[in-house]
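The passage that follows is intended for readers who have already worked through the single-chain material. We present the inputs for a multi-component assembly, then the predicted structure in tokenized form, and finally a short commentary. You are encouraged to pause after the input and sketch how you expect the pieces to fit together before reading on.
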Amino acid sequence: MTESNPVAIVTAAAGAGIGAAIVDRLAHDGYDVVVTDVHERRCREAAERLSVAHGREFLAVPLDVTDESRVQAAVASVIDARGRIDVLVNNAGWSKIEPVSEMSLDTWRRCLDVDLTGTFLCMRYALPHMIEAGRGSVVNISSISAYETSTEHGAAYSAAKAGVLALTRVAAAENGRHGVRVNAVTPGLIYNDFLRKIYPDEFFDGYAESRSLVGRVGRPEDVANLVGFLVSDQAGYVTGEVYGVSGGVYPHA
Ligand SMILES: NC(=O)c1ccc[n+]([C@@H]2O[C@H](COP(=O)([O-])OP(=O)(O)OC[C@H]3O[C@@H](n4cnc5c(N)ncnc54)[C@H](O)[C@@H]3O)[C@@H](O)[C@H]2O)c1
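Having made your guess, compare it with the prediction:
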């Protein structure tokens, strides 16, 4: 691979779910992927796994998206190493389900910090490089929780993910004329084992059979395929949009 390959930064890419599938998809599509995650060891291991799978070297940049100085330094290090940023996928998310009447301020702040402020900070420092280059694409991973009336995901997470949609639309309006597109994706249940620690068993019971319209829960690859399209030139007329990927559980127009 040479410096001329388009460079894609993906946050929270060393987990068990969507981020890992996105880096795999983008690597498959020829991107020079930068694996970032707050968990340093898993971040390096994920980049190594990707290198073995795709036969070329990928950068690992440990990053907590809530830390402004580290976001700034991470973006600068990618520019130093690769000279360009073509794609940013804001995948980092965090949630803890507490009713509003009992929610701690820490839960509220942590959720807004990771899901919304983290998305803002990464855009804040990556966008100037895209604007300068006159090209770029950002995909923000929101959730169906941004629209639904449900107790399933908790108000902090829903508020943060709804905020991501507003942030996406305004950033798209600001940057389209600079050649930069900004879109969001709202997944429904995309299964990974870690979710068992966050959601009660009842959340999963019957989801595939009676809620999903396609008889299964989502897979990380379902989101990665959509992201792969949205960042590609095939999506050149697509910006400021929100795409669901929820097996029809929460279609939204
Ligand atoms: N899994 C779902 O059902 C689902 C549904 C809708 C939306 N989403 C959203 O999709 C995204 C990915 O979710 P996932 O469940 O696939 O998990 P994932 O495995 O892709 O992401 C979890 C990773 O996030 C990292 N992380 C946590 N806090 C971070 C921080 N401050 N900075 C950087 N990295 C951090 C963790 O280390 C972990 O590796 C999240 O934004 C989530 O809200 C997930």
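Commentary: The CA atoms of residues 193 and 240 lie 32 Å apart. The mean pLDDT is 96. How closely did your sketch match?
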